[in-house]
Design brief:
Blueprint (H helix, E strand, L loop, with lengths): L1 H22 L20 H18 L3 H6 L8 E7 L3 E9 L5 E9 L6 E7 L12 H4 L14 H7 L3 E4 L14 H18 L3 E11 L1 H12 L3 E7 L5 H8 L4 H4 L1 H12 L4 H6 L6 E5 L2 E5 L9
Parallel strand pairs: 4-5, 4-6, 6-7, 7-8
Antiparallel strand pairs: 1-2, 2-3, 3-5, 8-9
Length: 308
């Protein structure tokens, strides 16, 4: 009987060892600061100071502060790779400088008959996507190798047909391209450069630039909207969830150990200085729409639904 009890205890210990070890931490007598930049209700002027400080802190943590300070000296040096007329809009693929030492490819669509300046949208694909994914095959088809496209994410084509300028690049990579950078930082920076490119286009109304994305694209949409004040409205789909659900499914999945970028995302968006609501507050004076499997939430200034 005693041996039987010991066997049960050993079995229970083995069963619970992995999940408990995942959550356990060593006792540290020194207090750990939490939510050191938490947003609280305050006058508008103080809120703007808070936003500025949080953006500066996150740029530093993402190792982008040097690029933010010098980006106006980084010329695009654009090289058009191909272009096509699609009836109501034109589409082209262009290669530009993201940093002084790294180039990226972008897809750009421009309405053909409408007089500018026009509203524009940064279209962000999800996990496993590329710069073509926000468009359907009709938009990106050309001679030579056929690029892959997922029609379920063809919102870029819908926007192009509806009179919007659109732009897309690849942010689903899992490789850090430049020494000293972070994955999440490079993803975000490439999207910021997309906004820079839109601003350089005479067809674009600078006051009506939005962004939209699905899954990883929804996450990067939230980052771009919070970190770049030029984004007037954002739509994030398939990203937001509850703190409990995300912490349970992500914190013990190895992401914190395997990726410093994920550590920053989880630590600074969920746990310590900011949570997702706080990052969203970084764009709180601008409309935000979030869609998930549980429904749609909208945050906006006031009045009816917003259209850029």
């Amino acid at each position: 009987m005693r041996r039987h009890k010991l066997t049960i205890l050993a079995t229970l210990f083995t069963f619970f060892e992995v999940p408990l070890a995942c959550m356990a931490t060593k006792q540290d007598p020194s207090p750990v600061p939490q939510r050191v930049m938490q947003y609280t209700s305050r006058p508008a002027a103080e809120a703007e100071v808070w936003q500025k400080n949080v953006r500066a802190k996150l740029l530093h943590l993402l190792r982008l502060d040097d690029l933010a300070e010098t980006k106006h000296s980084i010329a695009f040096c654009s090289k058009q790779l191909w272009s096509k007329n699609r009836g109501t809009y034109d589409v082209k693929e262009v290669e530009i400088n993201s940093t002084a030492d790294r180039r990226i490819r972008i897809v750009v669509t421009v309405p053909g008959s409408q007089a500018g300046p026009l509203p524009a949208v940064v279209c962000v694909g999800g996990h496993g996507s590329d710069l073509y994914s926000p468009y359907d095959r009709q938009t990106i088809e050309r001679e030579g190798p056929k690029p892959e496209s997922d029609p379920m994410k063809g919102f870029g084509t819908v926007l192009a047909k509806s009179g919007y300028v659109t732009i897309s690049t690849t942010v689903s990579q899992h490789e850090v391209y430049e020494k000293g950078r972070l994955l999440m930082g490079e993803r975000l920076w490439d999207l910021i450069r997309c906004v820079d490119y839109l601003e350089s286009m005479p067809e674009v109304d600078r006051s009506r630039i939005g962004c939209a994305g699905l899954s990883l694209g929804g996450e990067m949409t939230m980052w771009l909207a919070a970190m770049d004040e030029r984004v007037a409205v954002s739509v994030s789909a398939g990203f937001l969830t509850s703190w409990i659900r995300w912490s349970r499914t992500t914190a013990c999945a190895g992401s914190l150990k395997d990726s410093e970028s994920w550590s920053i995302t989880l630590t600074f968006i969920l746990w310590s200085p900011l949570d997702r609501c706080n990052v969203r507050t970084g764009s709180r004076s601008r409309p935000v729409s979030s869609a998930s499997g549980l429904g749609v939430r909208q945050w906006k200034k006031s009045g009816p639904s917003t259209r850029i």
